[in-house]
Amino acid sequence: MTRVLVVDDEPQIVRALVINLKARRYEVDAAPDGATALQLAAARHPDVVVLDLGLPDMDGVEVIRGLRGWTRVPILVLSARHTSDEKVEALDAGADDYVTKPFGMDELLARLRAAVRRAEPVGPDGADDLVIVEAEGFTVDLAAKKVHREGRDVRLTPTEWHLLEVLVRNAGRLVSQKQLLQEVWGPSYGTETNYLRVYMAQLRRKLETDPAHPRHFVTEPGMGYRFERG
């Protein structure tokens, strides 16, 4: 069973989420604040975290950074904050998706399922001849879902990995913004280009020698992105 950690200080929201998630056979833990959330995450190892940003003891972005220090668990942010800057800050800290309050339960559950799918390893049926991709400066192991740079593993979140995987499997070809959004985040996405900007910046920061002048993750303005081996 999939284990969900719900982090929110509004009891009615927690109750609604717990009821709906358990009805769909999820296991659910709940935390009313950031400190409890970090403790529960370490003890229970959830498969996905649903996180409110407005917590009583610390900002939710701090919780994201705390989790990202040791785990790649998918993080779905749930918040009443509407501005683009605040969404980008959460995504930049390592969140995988962002749902604005008030929200529809069906949409939230669909996004949660998508976040869990992105984190699942690809089985043998999804394997093909393209397993190890050598780029100048780093290596992508598609089978093991690992990236090595300068002899070290590069830590990627599930969403960062999924975006990298789509680009690498289409090496040398332009992948449109809409295609990337729909493949990585799901079919209901297509216009959230700020997600792509944030995650491409993170991939460049982690993998490019000079992120300001990328050689591997190339932007085609207004069209999409292209991966070049070097």
UniProtKB/TrEMBL annotation:
It holds the Pfam family Response_reg. Residues 130-229 bind DNA. Residues 130-229 form the OmpR/PhoB-type domain. The keyword DNA-binding applies. CDD domains: REC_OmpR_KdpE-like, trans_reg_C. Keywords: DNA-binding, Phosphoprotein. Residues 3-116 form the Response regulatory domain. InterPro entries: CheY-like_superfamily, OmpR/PhoB-type_DNA-bd, Sig_transdc_resp-reg_receiver, WalR-like, WH-like_DNA-bd_sf. This is Two-component system KDP operon response regulator KdpE. It comes from Streptomyces clavifer.
